[in-house]
Amino acid sequence: MTERTLIALAVVAGFALAVALGRRWYEWRNARIEARLRAVTSAAPASGQPRVVYFTTKTCVICKVQQEPALTALAERIPDLRIDRHDAVAATDLAKEYGVLSVPTTAVYDRAGALVTINRGFTPAAILLAQIEGRTPDLEGGAEMGSEFVA
Questions:
Q1: What pTM does this model have?
Q2: Maximum Cα–Cα distance for the chain, whole Å?
Q3: Which residues pair with 83 in a beta bridge?
Q4: Is the pLDDT of residue 151 over 50?
């Protein structure tokens, strides 16, 4: 009985260690990608125009149903917003450069041309707006989690 318990504990500990190491690697990888992109964008001249680099695929349902309406709402709120849409399958080199592992993925640049963050998965319009404006989004009660802005 004790032997089985020790084996079970060893398996659970091994699994927990693997998950922890996987998460650390993922954070390290994302930090490296963002640092490299920040270095590249800091050398480029600023256009004064905020930008979202958006990765999708032809078959991405959440992209069509949630992310694209959020980007449309954001573009209505910021008329000079530049949205660069890319198919992650067709533009594999660019997707690799941005570390795209899933779609939708959005990279947000502020008006100074600096990379603010890379969002992996659906990101609501209000959060994208807060990122562009350099403020922390208010997520009280989930008010800003939809594709549309809350008045």
A1: 0.75
A2: 69
A3: 52
A4: no
